[in-house]
Structure formats: C-alpha cells, structure tokens
Amino acid sequence: MKLNLNSIVLVAFFLLTITSNAFASKEPIKFGKVSKEELEMSIYSKDSSAPAVILCDYGYWNLRGYMFTKVIRIKILKKEGLEYGNQVYPSDEGTTIRGKTFNLVNGEIQVDKLKGESIFKERIYEDYYNYRIAMPNVKVGSVIDIEITHFGIPTIWHFQQNIPIKWSELIIPQSMYIDYRKNFFGHEQLYYSSNEHWIAKDMPAFKPEAFISSSKNFITKFEFDVLAYRFPGYYKEFTTDWDAVARRLKESSYFGGVLNIALYLSNAAKEIEKQDSTPMGRMKLAYQTAKHVKWNEQKSFLTTYSSLGMSYKEGVGNSADINMILVNLLHKLDIEAHPVVLSTRDNGLLPRFSPSINKLNYVIAYAKIDNIEYLMDATEENSTVGILPLRCLNGMGHVMMDNHSIQVVLSPTKKEQVTEMFNLKLSDDLVLRGNVSSIYRDYGAYNFRNYFKSFNSQDDMVEDMEENHQGITISNYQLTDIENIDLPVMESYEMEIKNQLYTLENKIYLSPLLHLKKTDNPFKEAERKYPVSFGFCSEKKYIFQYTLPEGYQITELPKSLKMMLPDNGGSAIFSFQSNGNNITVLYQFTLNKTDYSVEEYQYLRELYNQIINKQSEPIILSKNE
User: Which of 115, 168, 203, 426 is the most exposed place for a label (fewest CB within 10 A)?
Assistant: First the structure.
C-alpha cells in the first residue's frame, strides 16, 4: 500500500536532499511528442486485425523523490478501438494525470487536452483509488498520450493487453528504503529482463480462449506488493501475510468498523427468532432477510458507508454492504459468522503466497453450525446456502476474524443437474406431438431461475423458446417451485414439432435429440494455451420416448455408445433401444471436474467432437406401402 499524504511530504523532503544514482536509460517516449507518421498510421503491420495498438508504454521509478512516472501512447485504428480512449489506473490519492488526444485535421495536428472533470476516482481502500480516465475527442486515427505520476512503485505493470503492444519498458531501480515483492505472470517471453529493467517488444494481443477463468490469470504482467517503507525516522510494514490483512481490515471504518454494530437489525432478528428456533432455519431466514437489500452491481470488499444502517434503510448496496449485513444478522442470532474476502473470477486469482489488499474486490458471508461451514452470497436473489454465483468460484478466499484469518476453498459443493423427458408421438403428417417434463437441481435450478428472471413474464420466456427453435409450438406451460429457491424447479409443457423429420428416397429421417442437438464444438482450436474452467460440475440427462403410428417401421437405429474421459473426468452416454413401435433414446452428459488442464484438453475436445458426430446420426424409418 501507499504512504498517506502527510508522510509523503516528509519523506519527499528528506529524499530531495539525497543524490541518487538513478538508472541511466534513454527514454523511448516523451509525453506529447507525437509524430505525423504515427497519426497517418492506419494499420498495425504485425496484426492487421488490431482495433488499436499501444505504440509505447514506459514506466520509470526515479530514486530522486521516489516518484514513478508512466507514459503510454495508444493509436486508435478502428471503430472497435475507441474504447481504449478510456483507461483505468490504480494509484494513491497524490496521483497527477496529464493527457492529450492528437488528431490529423486537413494535414494539421489538432490537440485536445484532458480536463480534470474527465478523471474519476473510485476508492479501493483507504487513500487508494482506481482512476478512470476518459480522453477527449477520440476517433479512428487518434493518437492518445497519457502521463501518470505518483509516489512509490506501481501495483501492476502489463506487458501484454487485449491489443498488441509495440514497446513496453519498465525501470525500477533497487532501493534500501523500500521492500517489495514482485510476481511475474504470463506465457509470453520478455525481450529483455534484468533485476531492475524489463522490456517487451512486439507483444501480441492476448487472445482469450473458450471457458477460461479470467484473462488476468494468464496475461503477461508484473504485480508488485510493498512490504515495508524504511526511511530514516519512519518505518511502516504492510501486508506480509493474511493475518496482517485481517488486522488492517479490522481497523478500517468500512470493514471492521461496521461489524457487531447492528441495532438496525434488532427487529429483523426478533422476527426470525419467532419464526424458527433452529440455527439452520434461522440462518436461512437471515439469508433471505439480507437479500431485501438489493445489489447495485458494484463489487467491493468495503462498505459504502461507515454505518450499515444507511444501506439497510436505503434498501440498496454493494456486495460488502449486503453480505456484512448478513454477517451482523447472524451474530444477532448467536450464529458464528465472519466476512470472507476474495477476488472474483473476472478480477483474477488471489496469489496464494503473496497477500495483497489490492487484489481484493468482494465479500461473502461465512457461517458455522455444528462444525459445518457454510458460504453465502446474499447479492443474488436466486442463490441458496451452498450455491455461490459463478463469479465467486475462484480459488481461495480468506475468512477475516478478529486478528487472524483462515483460508477457505471457493469451490462448488453441488453440481449443475438437469433431467428432461420427452414423450412424443409421430403422426402421418410427420409432426411430433407430446409433452415434456424437466427438473433442475442445484446449479441447474440456480441457472434456470436466473434465465427465467431475465424475462418480464413467463409468456415472454415461452415466446423466446419458440423463436430460438423454429418449428416448435409450446402450450400449457407450467412451472413448480420457481419461487421456492430451496427446492428444485419443475417444468412441464406440451409441444408440437414440425421440422425435425425429412424424407429421402422413401425413407424418413429423425434427428433423435431434436432441437437439443449440438452442431458446434466450443473447443475448435487443435492446441490450447490455458486450462479449461467451467466453474462447476455438470450432470445432464435427456430421455426421448418416441411412439410411431401404425404402418411405420424402424429401418435403422444408431448404435449405443459410451465415451469416458481419463481419470473419471467425465463421460457421454448414448443409448438407442426399440420395442415394437416405440423408441427410447437416452443421452447423458457428465463433467466430474470444474477445471481441466492443458494436457487434458485434447481428450475434452475429442469428447465434444464425438458427441456432435453421434448426435448427427439419424433414426431411419420407413412406411409400409
């Protein structure tokens, strides 16, 4: 973390009296010195698909004053690249930012300066912020220069981003006054590397793959954690371990300061105590009560106010507000409970051995009853005890207790379970009619409820189902226990299908899995760089019962097939059986792991290929003359 402003002034005064042996290196870029050649550039030769390119990203730490300066220059090449006119940089309160946008207008260079009202601060922790920068007059062809200056070293340096980088250079000379830890991530090699000087040249854009946890886990970068400042007359130690993080958070008015202060919850606690006398029942009721405060979609490990009563009264809050309210309510009910700090999937994994407050961005609730631990996130209307949203399933979290912490695994304890049964009769006009019944359990129920919630009404959802599957008409649609989140969701409806059979040379072809047939493998690439991450395990079963009319016979059934992944990692089962004029088709798909390594990728890809091939095999019928 950073020094506060008063300390910075004192330390800077001392440092300015010191003659430092600063690292001598020619600067690859000067802020505001944009060439006409850069403005005329219309394509990046090393990646013609790039919507924008970082021409240079240069950062250096000056031992005279211990100020860090970053200068970045971005060229906008396509309309899709306009978003790079908005930048985010994490830093302390004493940060200064300059920016200029350059455009070529009638052969002349036009300059628009960044104004203070286009820089927005979003507090991360204490005097540490995300600075959101909106550059002016950005258009296709623009060149953007941004200069950022602050005390101390940066918390992160990206040598790779989602657009290519022509040159990235970082210089951080070693100093006896600051102890820090740096961690290198990524798969790409640097052009040059020493103890205090690193260069990336012609770095390709990061290319995300299907089903990765987060690009932040694999993109090439440095992360820095300051361990201690040790200037003459001043010493401060930071987060050396997670217990130290717990102690620091306890001191925060927006974390430890809001715990165990819960007069605003007295009436809610009394009402719960009237309704249920068991700890488990009370925990579930507390969970539902906390959900009355609606999530504003803001992820944070710090509360909005220093008093949670404000958020409770307003009925809206960030992730910390809602889940801290839950923790306090559980305390009121004499249930052991603590906040759990974590990093969501899109924010990247928490480093196992490098504690860092800067990496935290979320809080959930931990409870313990009869030595059984429970994790809850009350931001989600459809989540239940033990069902965390996908964003929270991200490695390890840390339970924050009074002066220490314990590690907790953020892995799902339940699967996505779906079972669907189709009972269909074929008519002479080659139309299938019948009924469908489905049951969704655990993550299957959670996902279905979220899908249902995305529509204004049940009728809108049914209409969407029909539009997505041409030739299907649905009637008498019914749902059971859609509101009771502790129970599975039951679904039933009648269905008419007109386009799943075709005739060729007096034979009739039926696609056995109907509209559920998959035609595209999500794993198209022959090779893969990064592990596959689904988030939770899956178990899906589909049963089709077909009844043929009189005068029809089965000419050919596909052969049954069972495919297995190594080490019981998953399976796909196809079963085709007939009895007179009845056909039974079973398709069962199981993934027993949440994550698959790069070495396991080929097996997983081939499993999907075989599934697609098998689903394409038709049932062949004929009609007696």
Answer: 115
pLDDT at res. 25: 60
d(CA 595, CA 531) in angstroms, rounded, equals 7
Question: How many whole angstroms separate alpha carbon 312 and alpha carbon 567?
Answer: 49
pLDDT digits (tens, 9 = 90+) for 507-543: 999 999 999 999 999 999 999 999 999 999 999 999 9
What top-level class would CATH report for the domain 5-237?
Answer: mainly beta
Residue ranges, comma separated, of all CATH 2.60.120.1130 domains in the chain are: 416-623
pTM equals 0.88
Where does CATH 2.60.40.3140 sit in the chain? 5-237
Neighbours of 446 (CB within 10 A): 24
Does domain 416-623 sit in CATH 2.60.40.1930?
no
Strand partners, 525: none
Q: H-helix or E-strand containing 13?
A: helix 5-15
Q: Whole-angstrom Cα distance, residue 491 to residue 420?
A: 9
At a CB cut-off of 8 Å and minimum separation 6, what does 177 contact? 66, 229, 230, 231
Strands 336-342 and 396-400: antiparallel
Determine the Cα–Cα distance for residues 150 and 243; give it in Å rounded to an integer: 28
| Alpha helix (H) residue ranges in 276-399 | 279-290, 308-314, 319-332
Work out the angle between the directed axes of helices 266-275 and 279-290 (0-180°, nearest 10): 140
Q: At 560, list the tokens.
A: 């049954």
Distances (CA, A) of 99 to 33, 70, 108, 149, 405: 12, 12, 19, 12, 42
Q: Is a pLDDT exceeding 50 seen at residue 12?
A: no
Q: With respect to CATH, is domain 242-409 assigned 3.10.620.30?
A: yes
Higher pLDDT, 10 or 417: 417
Q: Specify the domain boundaries for CATH 3.10.620.30 within the chain.
A: 242-409
